[in-house]
Amino acid sequence: MLTYDQWEKAEKPSFPSDNETKGALDVLAWAYREYGDEIVYACSFGIEGIVLIDLISQIKPDAEIVFLDTGLHFPETYDTIAKVKEKYPSLRIVMKQPRLTLEEQKAQFGDELWKRDPNKCCELRKVIPLREVLTGVTAWISGLRREQSPTRRHVEYINKDDKFRSIKVCPLIHWTWKDVWNYVYKRHLPYNVLHDRGYPSIGCAPCTTPATDPNDLRSGRWAGQGKTECGLHLA
């Protein structure tokens, strides 16, 4: 088994990128064969997440899907999760919440921490919860695509994740925005209606606006705060 501690010595798998799913199904088949129940998919239920859920369901219908439920998501995001649960009843969807409720966070760090210190808020409500999820598992799946932003252009199918001391599997690295939507329409998949309202990337409601730059799908995330990532995908 390819693990974080054995990364330097282990032989890395290779996958075709020129087939119908640009390697995604091949990567997922390998990942579930390699790790079994020692891999989880941390899903935001954005449009890439919908694609991955559908692909994963073809490989492992009872896979574990973890949603980092910060308590600050749009109502439309929770509606999307309900639709996914209905369409894929065998999936094990876990709503992972932070240790601190919003009221407890307010009492300890002050009101609307996301405005004053968004990095701390992301750490408390996303990074620490994901670290707890990944304790005891060997690998996790992410919907990163190289096209999404400059910070993601060098992502590989299989990555050594130093932040969480894990293996991070990214099946969609070669997919374009058009590829994602073509797949969703072709398969008639449910998705977050905010995508139709100018939100290509959807996170917590206080920190997400419609995209401000049509050439940057993540330009509506933490707009004006000099922040581009929540911290899950940074070393």
UniProtKB/TrEMBL annotation:
It comes from the Bacteria. Its main location: cytoplasm. Its cofactor is [4Fe-4S] cluster. Pathway: Sulfur metabolism; hydrogen sulfide biosynthesis; sulfite from sulfate. Pfam families: PAPS_reduct. Its EC number is 1.8.4.10. GO terms for cellular component: cytoplasm. GO terms for biological process: cysteine biosynthetic process; hydrogen sulfide biosynthetic process; sulfate assimilation, phosphoadenylyl sulfate reduction by phosphoadenylyl-sulfate reductase (thioredoxin). The active site is at C230. The keyword Transit peptide does not apply. HAMAP family: CysH. Belongs to the PAPS reductase family. CysH subfamily. This is Adenosine 5'-phosphosulfate reductase.
